[in-house]
Design goal:
The protein is of the alpha/beta class.
């Protein structure tokens, strides 16, 4: 078979002969860049070629593919976490990112390594970016002849070549053609899995090979499989799920050749490198679950997002690796204008605490590394804060003794901190088993048989959720990991067995690093170790009747239903996940370990504070005093008293009025009119020394009104008018009544007319009908001892003003003549012959 990638090998090798050591290879999916190119490169250079692969399953599969494709049995190997399958004679070794990063940081890259190939660089794993930067630095300083190649099917090759200061070798053709099609089933409000199933049914008879369907997560995968199995077109076909947490053996079984046609529904694990035999039709949902780290709240978010065009191209390429194929996209072609060109790099969206710890242990500052893309200051600061929280970095950002020990572990800083704490508590074996369980993947499976569920619970009763999983592993081990027994009790037998393998590896590593060998077991010591690793994940359950909880940092969360049995009053949530829910985005607490507050005091005594506050009890609607014992900002204990200082209670109640939480029922037109009169006379007659009621004065009045009150209802129903009157002395009130009359009698046969005072214009307005005002003696209305002339608003029969005047006598003899003609024409009934006006 002639692979397209071979076309670039000749010019690239000529560049090698001319002394070039850095290269960018751009080649489409199915061109042979992950298999053929490493083999040809090794044949050219000799020695050992390291190939970086983002995923473990791809590393193993590619090594086996090379052995089979080139008859190189025993000459291609892999090194993934806890699984090393190569020696010095192996020619090509596939490694995952963390393995290579630690080699480069510890200066332990074997001397016989002639080249490092960064395959699938477009995935932009954080360790890929770091490892490439470290490899380039190593080449510049110690290994001048080391060849470095960055390969990708879809990446910004111009930017990458500029960063590496090298040429691009581009293979623009693929081995087989791919027909891109767009679904015509959109717009029918169908779930994405139903659309995928219908597209599958339409194409079964027109294709001969296997199907690969991309879905964002396990939930969507299971829904898709369920729909496909309902279709008659799926009869005789093998339908599989494929995702990252599956055991390697199961993944291998799915990827192996078969006599039956297959339908594989996968996450983006199948997007790159994996060759699934015989696939000639890809159905792409256009969605993926993307892990992001919320730096402000220190929680992981796993949300479904639209993929980039680069990912869409990669996925389509799965259909053309073995033969010509078809890629069906479950979106409209016009929508692609809104797709991002490339996927977001991990270095810009994940927690960087592990890599920064490893760098600091090697005396390397992240700022001094020339990266392809620099992380944000926010993300690096967040990582430093996490390391400081764990005691790995001091206040001057220098690594501590604890941090040096933590950096030796091939784990996250949190798990590493648990191991360091385990030495004090004599619980290395417990922590190693916990780490093994976390590494192994899902072990506890759902049971539909309630009787069996009860039996399982009684056999694995534990103090915490992680210990329950450990108990399940022990139960499986006691029964020799029997497949039938584990199925009956909802235990993932393969993962349970793997947990012991990983635990053994962790224990061996821990003993060699910490020079300790202790196995004193006990849930108390394990809980303390978990607390050491997760001091910022302490939660307080609101009450036993709810799943709601408060988390350190002021975050509100929800306890996962399957974890609620362990969510006591105070607990640690080893997992905080931000998920999509019906009501929006929620933070879900999981992997729960209950703790006693005494553990917190033992480990973090300086983080305990006592605080006193005055609040409005939301249930009693009364002011109360709350004394709290807090861990960081999380209240753990509360003591409530309703014996509250009068001034403090008044200040709180007034603040509730101010921000709108309490609406004053008795604050309306009467009260506003009173305020306007006060403000009017304060300007018109300053000699009375009446202070205006401005916003500041109003605050003082309301605050004083709240003195002696303690409840919501008392404030809501308070007599605001009486409180406003108290702003004035008795003499001032009498003076305002005398100098600023509230109303005037313009017609003895009618009610007095209220006078409208406007302090902004200093007008005292009398609004009345022309009938009532005709004959009224304007000199009889004296306002502010004659300083203010009243303004008369003369109303037509429809109660709308027709004229405004401060001289009625002049109005009747001048303007009224023309106005009367107009009104008489419009309202003749109001102008009888006997009318005096």
């Amino acid at each position: 078979m002639e692979f397209p990638v071979k076309s670039i090998c000749k010019p690239l090798f000529e560049a090698v002969d001319n002394g070039k050591t850095r290269f960018v290879v751009a080649a489409p999916t199915g061109s042979g860049k992950s298999t053929v190119f490493p083999v040809m490169l090794q044949e050219k250079l000799g020695g050992q070629v390291f190939v970086l692969q983002p995923r473990r399953v791809a590393a193993r599969m590619l090594a086996r593919s090379i052995e089979k494709l080139f008859d190189m049995k025993g000459q291609a190997g892999w090194h993934v976490r806890f699984d090393k399958h190569y020696d010095t004679s192996t020619k090509i070794v596939f490694l995952t990112e963390g393995i290579l990063a630690r080699m480069l940081l510890s200066n332990s890259l074997p001397e016989n390594v002639s080249a490092i190939v960064f395959d699938e660089f477009h995935e932009r794993n954080v360790y890929t970016d770091i490892s490439l930067a470290l490899a380039l630095k190593l080449q510049e300083t110690k290994r001048e002849n080391l060849k470095i190649v960055a390969c990708s099917a879809s990446v910004d090759v111009a930017g990458l070549s500029a960063y590496m200061n090298c040429d691009v070798f581009e293979c623009s053709t693929r081995l087989h053609e791919i027909d891109i099609q767009y679904s015509d089933l959109l717009g029918r409000n169908l779930p994405i899995w139903e659309v995928a199933a219908k597209e599958f049914a339409k194409r079964v008879s027109s294709t001969n090979g296997n199907f690969l369907i991309f879905m964002p997560g396990i939930y969507e995968i299971n829904k898709t499989i369920s729909k496909i199995l309902e279709l008659p077109q799926s009869r005789g076909m093998q339908v599989y799920a494929l995702y990252g947490d599956m055991p390697a053996e199961t993944q291998d079984k799915i990827l192996n050749e078969s006599n039956c046609r297959k339908v594989i529904v996968a996450t983006n694990i199948a997007e790159t490198s994996l060759t699934i035999e015989g696939v000639d039709c890809v159905i792409d949902s256009g969605l993926a679950k993307v892990l992001r780290y919320d730096f402000s709240r220190a929680v992981n978010t796993l949300l479904v997002e639209q993929i980039s065009m680069a990912s869409a191209i990669q996925r389509a390429g799965r259909a053309g690796r073995i033969q010509n194929g078809t890629a069906v996209r479950l979106w409209r072609k016009a929508d692609e204008q809104y797709f991002a060109k490339y996927s977001t790099s991990e270095i810009s969206r994940v927690d960087l605490s592990q890599i920064i710890l490893w760098l600091k242990a090697s005396n390397i500052d992240l700022k001094n590394i020339a990266l392809f893309e620099n992380p944000s200051e926010k993300s690096t600061n967040s990582a430093i804060e996490t390391l400081q929280l764990l005691g790995a970095v001091d206040e001057f950002y220098n690594i501590t003794k604890i941090g040096i020990e933590m950096a030796k572990f091939p784990t996250s800083p949190r798990i590493a901190r648990m191991f360091v704490e385990a030495v004090k508590n004599g619980s290395l074996a417990d922590v190693a088993m916990l780490a093994g369980v976390l590494e192994a993947g899902k072990i506890k499976l759902e049971l539909t048989d309630q009787r069996r569920e009860h039996e399982r619970s009684s056999l694995t009763a534990s103090a915490s959720q992680p210990e329950e999983i450990i108990a399940l592993c022990e139960l499986a081990k006691e029964n020799s990991f029997s497949k039938s027994f584990c199925q009956d009790f909802g235990i993932h037998a393969v993962n349970a067995r793997k947990a012991y393998v990983f635990a053994s590896d962790f224990y061996r590593i821990a003993v060699s690093i910490l020079k300790e060998n202790n196995t004193i077991a006990g849930s108390t010591s394990l809980a303390k170790c978990v607390l050491a690793g997760y001091p910022d994940r302490v939660c307080k359950r609101l009450n036993e009747g709810t799943l709601a909880c408060k988390i350190v940092g002021g975050v509100s969360g929800t306890i996962r239903k399957t974890s609620k049995a362990y969510a006591k009053d105070v607990f640690i949530a080893m997992s905080l996940q931000e998920n999509n829910s019906v009501s929006g985005i929620s933070v879900v607490a999981d992997d729960i370990v209950p703790i006693d507050t005494e553990y917190l005091k033992d480990l973090f005594s300086f983080d305990f504070i006592e605080r006193q506050s005055i609040r409005l009890d939301e249930h009693q609607k009364r002011v109360c005093s709350v004394a709290e014992l807090c861990y960081k900002d999380l209240p753990l204990q509360q003591k409530i008293s309703y014996d509250v200082d009068e001034t403090s209670a008044a200040e709180l109640l007034f603040s509730k009025i101010k921000n709108g939480d309490i609406t004053l029922r008795n604050f309306g037109d009467v009260e506003q009119t009173f305020i306007e009169r006060v403000n009017f006379i304060s300007v018109a007659m300053p000699e009375l020394n009446i202070a205006p009621i401005n916003d500041s004065a109003k605050d003082d009045i309301f605050l004083q009104m709240c003195m002696g009150l303690t409840s919501y209802s008392e404030v809501k129903n308070a007599n605001v008018f009486e409180a406003l009157k108290e702003w004035l002395s008795g003499e001032q009130l009498s003076a305002m009544r005398y100098y600023l009359p509230e109303s005037v009698v313009v017609n003895p046969k009618r009610k007095p007319v209220k006078i409208r005072y406007d302090a902004s214009t200093m007008r005292a307005v009398v609004s009345a009908s022309f009938k009532d005002l005709f004959g009224f003696d304007e000199n009889s209305l004296i306002i502010c001892n004659g300083k203010i002339k009243p303004t008369f608003e003369i109303l037509a029969p429809n109660s709308r003003p027709v004229q405004t005047t401060q001289n009625l006598q002049n109005f009747w003899s001048t303007s009224w003549i023309n106005i009367r003609k107009e009104l008489k024409a419009r309202y003749p009934k109001h102008f009888p012959p006997t009318a005096p006006y």
